[in-house]
Amino acid sequence: MAMIGAGGRATSSHYPSLRDLPGVEIVAIAELDEKRLNAAADKFGVKGRYRNHIEMIEKEMPDAVYAIMPPYHLFDIAISIMERGCHLFIEKPPAVTTEQTRQMAVCARKHKVLTGVTFQRRFAPVIREGKTICEKKGPVHSAVATFYKNAVGQGPYYRGAMDILTCDAIHAVDTMRYLCGGDVVSVASDVRRLGAEHCTVHLALVKFSSGATGVLLTNWMTGRRIFSVEIHAPGISCFGDPEEGGNIFADGKVEPLQALDPFAMTDSREPYRAFGPYGINQHFMECIREGKQPETNFDDAAKTMDLVDRIYQGQI
């Protein structure tokens, strides 16, 4: 693997996940900030150190490249990586616009590379296992994805370069898609500029071709940060938080059928192991070995971006 970017997100989640995965080696890092470059390379034992990502790719010839950076810097870099035949893994959101994401998917198909986007909530053990358990009783008929933050008095993301729903709350949008399955049929939404000059509240009711109904509750004007899900199938429900844990309830009983503790499920106290980053990195490595597109590939990510657009367009 070769890495582009050595900021906080990359070094707290992706670098340690790759370090822990058997048969995976980080051979080089490209980073404009020399201090961050050397700090990451020293910490994770990486020899190759570059200021230019093209030079790194041409010299190191990695199997795959991770490009972890702000979304408005990503498009040209992503295209240049795929044009050189490297598999590519990126952070969310995959791009600034849905059309950029679609064009990245076109480029990936043209150059026959595998791609992935860090929608790690899909791979959070609490959410993934909760969905699996519920589906043993039947298909999911309704699901809720909630993402709350306390950003009262704060400005927009990247000084206004990105909106909240596309840049961050997209995690909940993608999780809702994952839980409900199928394609989007219709959307009704309420998007508000509450206490700010940018949109801070995004609420939606989404009907899917699977027959499931999804509820999206994202609000940056609340009392604290919470990411949680509800998963409902016939006679069974999961109420879960990928970080704080969850419970499975069934058959009208007050006591939970099963508790879901992310730390116990992963036998680790490390957040990157327990909350989903390790799982999605592991999935990407397995897909490279097997030569199959990852679950969160660019074509699939374009569907999540399209749903973001439809939430803005579906105002009631």
What labels would you give this structure?
8-stranded mixed beta sheet, 316 residues, Rossmann fold, Dihydrodipicolinate Reductase, domain 2, alpha/beta
Count of DSSP strands: 14
> Roughly how many Å apart are the termini?
46 Å
Task: Give the overall pLDDT as a whole number.
Answer: 98
The residue fraction in helices comes out at 25-40%
CATH homologous superfamily caption of the largest domain: Dihydrodipicolinate Reductase, domain 2
What is the CATH class designation of the largest domain? Alpha Beta
Major sheet attributes: 8 strands, mixed
Task: Please give the domain count.
Answer: 2
Shape: globular
Strand order of the largest sheet: 8-9-10-7-11-12-13-14
Tell me the β content.
Answer: 25-35%
How big is the Rg?
Answer: 20 Å
The H/E string reads EHEHEHEHEHEHEHEEEEEEEHHHH
| CATH fold topology of the largest domain | Dihydrodipicolinate Reductase, domain 2
Number of H/I helices? 11
CATH architectural type of the largest domain: 2-Layer Sandwich
